[in-house]
Write a structure and sequence with these properties.
Blueprint lengths: L6 E6 L17 E2 L2 E2 H11 L4 E6 L3 H8 L4 E4 L6 H6 L2 H5 L5 E6 L7 H13 L4 E7 L8 E4 L5 E5 L13 E10 H8 L15 H8 L4 E5 L12 H21 L3 E2 L6 E2 L4 E2 L4 E2 L3 E4 L3 E2 L4 E2 L3 E4 L2 E2 L4 E2 L2 E4 L2 E2 L4 E2 L3 E3 L4 E2 L4 E9 L2 E2 L4 E9 L1 E3 L4 E2 L4 E3 L9 E3 L4 E2 L4 E3 L2 E3 L4 E2 L4 E2 L8 E2 L13 H17 L1
Parallel strand pairs: 1-4, 1-6, 4-5, 7-11, 12-15, 13-16, 14-17, 15-18, 16-19, 17-20, 18-21, 19-22, 20-23, 21-24, 22-25, 23-26, 24-27, 25-27, 26-28, 27-29, 29-31, 30-33, 31-34, 32-35, 33-36, 34-37, 35-38, 37-39
Antiparallel strand pairs: 2-3, 6-10, 7-10, 8-9
Bound molecules: uridine-diphosphate-N-acetylglucosamine (UD1) and calcium ion (CA).
The site of uridine-diphosphate-N-acetylglucosamine has 32 residues, from helix 3 and strand 10.
Length: 472
Amino acid sequence: MTGERIKKALILAGGQGKRMKTDLPKVLLCVLEKPMLTWVTDACEAAGVVEICVVKGFGADKLETFLGGKFRTVMQAERLGTGHAVMQAREFLADGGESDTLILCGDAPFLDSDTIEKSYAVHIENRNAVTVVTAEIANPAGYGRILRSEDGDLLEIREDKDCTAAQKQICEVNSGCYWFNTQALLGVLDALKPANAQGEYYLTDCVGLLLAQGKRAGAYQTENPDVVLGANDRRGLLALNNLAREVIIGRHLDNGVEFVCTSGVVISPEVQIGRGTKILSGVVLRGNTQIGENCVIGPNCVIENTTVGDFTVLNNVQAYDSAVESHVKIGPFVQLRPGSVVKKGAKIGDFVEIKNSIIGERTAVAHLTYVGDCDVGKNVNFGCGVVTVNYDGENKFRTQIGDNAFIGCNTNLIAPVEIGSGAYTAAGSTVSGKVPANALVIERGRQTIKEGYAEKKLKARTEKFAKLEEEQ
Ligand code: UD1
Ligand code: CA
């Protein structure tokens, strides 16, 4: 064959996964907070697959919404088996002429790019019509078994339910991942018959059919058997989570990250953590999160799509789509909502919420404060209980606070509003207009004293309490 071979992938994701008892398509259930389907599509992309098509069926709308048009999809209206799922994708397979197609199950998240690439090399080298990715696993129940001849040649894949007692002893299983010569696959799809225990069209029967046509079928056994594991029920899903959790924490340990204990620690696969950083219990790190070196994260943090610099301490913090620079201290009990940037050396204390705001270098927001839609300069001090009043019920407005400003306790800042650099707001002020640099704004009621006002009231209350005391 001449010319570049095109690598494309078909991911089978039409099944309901009845045993999961969910309204979601099974492939959208997560392992380490990442949908199983995304594990699979990421592995394909990392292995240089140029075109991906997903077979949808149960919960197709939800799957479409999740994919957001990123990949081609094909509908399998009835779920009649993995072979039937592939039949629905004939057009995708035929597009682009002579090439190889990778077929994968959306419910086996650990099939990695390394396995995809190595099995492809074997597929090409042996000029196979199909190369099945297999593994020897300790507990093969539920998987299709690999039947081989006495010489070790691949003969057939037989589903668990169709196996004899002796065949069930075989520990080499089908991963559900295969490289097919696309034309060869198209040549046998129509010959699949639902003549088996489950009355389904099995994709696995293609192996026997191709061999019967005199074509070559081979197997690539994975180096790490865990990469083939799939989840068919909630116990299986938890087992995948536990396995992946251990592997990922192990990787961070090797990189010099410190874990005092790993209780409640869940780290998504893409998260990066610098050396010398300590992760305490109850820390969930999700999505595209990067933590720098020598930080202390935890206990009890949820950090999602957020970057954190070096030497930063996050204690009981929730942070989403935000950036925290180096030498920052945040917590306890702080939420950073999307669009927040906390600059170098800043301090955010207890019960503070920051949203879509920039907190300048060395600025302190120490307690009980809401900062929303606000651009704060450096060296600013917020007293306790400051509120940016950023929403009038219809629209949101920004607040600007210059460098070195001092915001007194319980100040309300009615946005849009600007506090000049170095300006002070008096405690309890509700600031409604621009404050020039270096000024003091006092915007609150003046003190009024009514001498002796409480005496009469106090007498009545004293009598009431005296009576209560007698009665008890
Ligand atoms: C399948 C393989 C089995 C292999 C195992 C690996 C077949 C017949 N069996 O079994 O040999 O060891 O995977 O995990 O292929 N799907 C559809 N449409 C359907 C049926 C399934 O899109 O009509 C999708 C599912 O969403 C799932 C994948 O295909 O992502 C595999 O289906 P599943 O029913 O889980 O197959 P297994 O019984 O696990
Ligand atoms: Ca499965």
